[in-house]
């Protein structure tokens, strides 16, 4: 007992070079993804914490959120409005915001088709084919025909038995202020552009 022989010897933890290399690689990947997200957007999967669809901007004492409604307009003028989660119900929740931002914004906000870009962009497109297609190829006939076909299928599923002439993705901004008790004290809706897609005939 006096010499401590009755107690187990303390074992020293040894960190092998392989473990050190694994942690160094994880740190390097995390730093690389932070740079990638800053310049190009969030990849999937990612080591960094993802953004959340419920986040919004705080400005001038109010919270401003960008929202949209999907409206299918029938031949007789009747309108059938659906929330984003209903329109994009076939897609995972985490994919809906990027799809809306890239494919459903008004066309005047899309980037023009660019045949060649920087070396980093070419490498990115080689590794992630189609990463920026939603912005760079929105004016191509194939892209417009694909969007028209998908919206036509959604119209048939959501408004069966109706002849739908066009789909309108109506964007708007909502600025709201809140009282000290957390209740809404003011709400203002401002139009923020509309994407119109004809569903009869060829894409325009």
Secondary structure topology:
Layout: H1 17-40, E1 57-59, E2 62-74, E3 79-82, H2 84-87, H3 93-103, H4 119-127, H5 133-136, H6 141-158, E4 164-178, E5 184-198
Antiparallel strand pairs: 1-2, 2-3, 2-4, 4-5
Walkthrough of the structure:
This protein has 204 residues and is α+β, with helices and mostly antiparallel strands. The chain contains 6 helices and 5 strands; from the N terminus they run H-E-E-E-H-H-H-H-H-E-E. The chain has helices at 17-40, 84-87, 93-103, 119-127, 133-136, 141-158; strands spanning 57-59, 62-74, 79-82, 164-178, 184-198. Strands 1, 2, 3, 4 and 5 form a 5-stranded antiparallel β-sheet that branches. Strand 1 and strand 2 form a beta hairpin. Residues 109-116 have low confidence and may be disordered.
């Amino acid at each position: 007992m006096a010499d401590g022989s009755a107690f187990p010897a303390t074992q020293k933890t040894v960190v092998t070079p392989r473990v050190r290399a694994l942690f160094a690689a994880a740190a390097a990947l995390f730093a690389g993804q932070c740079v990638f997200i800053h310049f190009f957007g969030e990849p999937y999967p990612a080591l960094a914490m993802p953004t959340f669809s419920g986040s919004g901007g705080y400005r001038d004492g109010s919270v401003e959120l960008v929202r949209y409604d999907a409206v299918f307009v029938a031949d007789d003028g009747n309108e059938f409005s659906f929330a984003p989660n209903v329109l994009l119900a076939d897609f995972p929740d985490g994919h809906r915001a990027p799809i809306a931002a890239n494919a459903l914004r008004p066309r005047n906000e899309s980037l023009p088709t660019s045949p060649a870009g920087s070396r980093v962009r070419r490498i990115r497109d080689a590794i992630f084919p189609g990463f920026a297609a939603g912005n760079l190829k929105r004016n191509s006939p194939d892209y417009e025909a694909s969007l028209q076909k998908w919206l036509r299928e959604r119209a048939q599923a959501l408004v069966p038995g109706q002849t739908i002439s066009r789909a309108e993705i109506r964007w708007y901004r909502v600025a709201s202020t809140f009282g000290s008790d957390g209740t809404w004290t003011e709400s203002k809706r401002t139009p923020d552009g509309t994407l119109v897609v004809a569903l009869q005939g060829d894409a325009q």
